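Researcher: I'd like a candidate sequence for this fold, 106 residues long. If you have to choose between options at a position, lean toward the conservative one.
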């Protein structure tokens, strides 16, 4: 039976074998280079057009989100998030407008 010991600050992670054998020490894996930042080095930024919508009814569809948000501006896409088991809306979704101005309308 193999038991795992969670790593602690400053100590390597070990996995001990109850049979009394030497502990297994996982090989050190070199870290890869950092991922490049989008837009030529600019830090990640939140979208100014994609809105998170919560409090949706379980029967909400993508088309319902279009109808709900169309009065505020041109919509690029909508997505009601559905439960895989019930195929009902989980109560939230996303609406992506074509401009930040449309997304900020009250």
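Model: Candidate sequence:
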């Amino acid at each position: 039976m193999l038991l795992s010991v969670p790593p602690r600050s400053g100590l390597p992670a070990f996995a001990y074998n109850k049979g009394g054998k030497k502990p297994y020490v996982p090989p050190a894996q070199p870290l890869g280079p950092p991922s490049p930042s989008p837009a030529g080095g600019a830090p990640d930024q939140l979208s100014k057009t994609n809105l998170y919508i919560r409090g949706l009814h379980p029967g909400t569809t993508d088309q319902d989100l279009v109808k709900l948000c169309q009065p505020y501006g041109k919509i690029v896409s909508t997505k009601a998030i559905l439960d895989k088991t019930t195929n009902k809306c989980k109560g939230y979704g996303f609406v992506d407008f074509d401009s930040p101005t449309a997304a900020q309308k009250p």
